[in-house]
């Protein structure tokens, strides 16, 4: 018997789960959390804290920051100083706060569409402009148009770039050379590089994500990285993340922003659960990655064999699969609605990510194999009848 259970689907129907707030018979493969119980060590640490029964104010101390540092050393082979870190209540709250602190109303915030849809909210809701250097799709995968990116970084109103590293929804893992090149360009044009690394731990075997704070030279002074156990360990509702800012001045600015936005204080479980994840969660995470590898292989083969009009375009990161549906429609929103009504399968339409997303759908594969198989059968049935 396997040591960890990746076969049982926790029943989240009629709980407060966002994803599972669906009708009977519907199958949600959408919002980015997982249908696996988190690592036993995390549950144990949470239970211990609950047993204590007194939940007064807290702030993170050395044990928290050392756990983050050691995780990055052991898991990612990267040196990181505890002085560079600030606790925050989530990656998205930090992004919005940093947009407000580091850029000004009317500035351009650069992104690479198609990209995580909430980046648009953080930018637009704060009165900044979205400027995208769209990733270029060649029919197989995506790449950066460096000339276009440089031209947009050079515009005087571009002051901040939000980088998705690794990239949601395409699953791309950026190489060391790419991350360094991007950081050097940001330095050249005085643009702060805000790197969202929430998917950094979820990279399949043989690939490595490169934290932006690990770049060499003066470019590091322009970097803010956001890291979190949220995706890796299925603890999104923990609301815990760490901001990493090597440069002291920039760090002080970010810290003032996080504090005035009141998003720098942990809830009762944030500290023990994060420490448990980073100190004792490695074996579970590696078993999870193996499970995800199996899920991706199954889905890729299934689609090739049974729905050959679709094309999987995903890179080796995240548990989200990015599928080109342009052979059957150039409006994936209509397809997604049809799949939902016809088969109960709920997937995400690519348009919300901008760029060429209208020709794509995104499916969350972080579920036991029984659910993946159910989802694929519904997908095949829905696509076949949509084509008719
Ligand atoms: C790239 C990216 N950043 C941030 C988040 C959410 O972060 P948090 O829940 O810590 O606010 C997600 C969730 O899907 C994501 O994909």
UniProtKB/TrEMBL annotation:
Keywords: Aminotransferase, Lyase, Pyridoxal phosphate, Transferase. Residues 30-373 form the Aminotransferase class I/classII large domain. Its cofactor is pyridoxal 5'-phosphate. Pfam families: Aminotran_1_2 (PF00155). GO terms for molecular function: cysteine-S-conjugate beta-lyase activity; pyridoxal phosphate binding; transaminase activity. It comes from the Bacteria. This is cysteine-S-conjugate beta-lyase. NCBIfam families: C_S_lyase_PatB. Its EC number is 4.4.1.13. Belongs to the class-II pyridoxal-phosphate-dependent aminotransferase family. MalY/PatB cystathionine beta-lyase subfamily. It is an enzyme of class 4 (lyase). PANTHER family: PROTEIN MALY (PTHR43525:SF1). CDD domains: AAT_like (cd00609).
């Amino acid at each position: 018997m396997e040591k960890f259970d990746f076969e049982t689907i926790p029943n989240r129907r009629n709980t407060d789960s966002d994803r599972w707030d669906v009708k009977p018979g519907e199958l949600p493969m959408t919002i980015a959390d997982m249908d696996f119980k988190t690592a036993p060590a995390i549950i144990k640490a949470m239970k211990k804290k609950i047993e204590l029964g007194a939940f007064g104010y807290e702030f993170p101390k050395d044990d928290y920051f050392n756990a983050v540092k050691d995780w990055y050393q052991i898991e990612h082979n990267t040196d990181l100083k505890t002085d560079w870190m600030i606790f925050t209540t989530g990656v998205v709250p930090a992004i919005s706060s940093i947009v407000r602190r580091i850029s000004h109303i009317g500035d351009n915030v650069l992104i690479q569409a198609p990209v995580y849809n909430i980046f648009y909210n953080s930018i637009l809701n704060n009165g900044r402009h979205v400027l995208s250097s769209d990733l270029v799709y060649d029919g197989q995968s995506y790449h950066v148009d460096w000339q276009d990116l440089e031209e947009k970084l050079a515009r005087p109103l571009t002051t901040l770039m939000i980088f998705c590293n690794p990239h949601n929804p395409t699953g791309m893992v950026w190489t060391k050379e790419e991350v360094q090149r991007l950081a050097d360009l940001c330095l050249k044009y005085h643009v702060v590089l805000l790197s969202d690394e929430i998917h950094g731990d979820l990279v399949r075997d043989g690939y490595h994500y490169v934290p932006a704070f690990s770049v060499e030279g003066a470019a590091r002074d322009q970097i803010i990285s956001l890291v979190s156990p949220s995706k890796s360990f299925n603890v999104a509702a923990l609301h815990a993340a760490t901001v990493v800012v090597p440069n002291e001045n920039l760090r002080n600015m970010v810290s003032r922003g996080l504090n005035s936005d009141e998003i720098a204080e942990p809830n009762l479980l944030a500290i023990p659960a994060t420490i448990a994840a980073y100190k004792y969660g490695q074996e579970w995470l590696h078993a999870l990655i193996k499970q995800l590898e199996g899920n991706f292989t199954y889905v890729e083969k299934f689609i090739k064999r049974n729905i050959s009009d679709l094309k999987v375009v995903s890179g080796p990161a995240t548990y989200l699969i990015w599928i080109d549906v342009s052979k059957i429609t150039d409006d994936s929103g209509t397809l997604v609605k049809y799949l939902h009504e016809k088969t109960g399968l709920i997937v995400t339409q690519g348009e919300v990510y901008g760029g060429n997303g209208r020709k794509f759908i995104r499916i969350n594969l972080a579920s036991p194999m029984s659910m993946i198989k159910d989802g694929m059968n519904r997908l095949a049935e829905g696509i076949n009848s949509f084509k008719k």
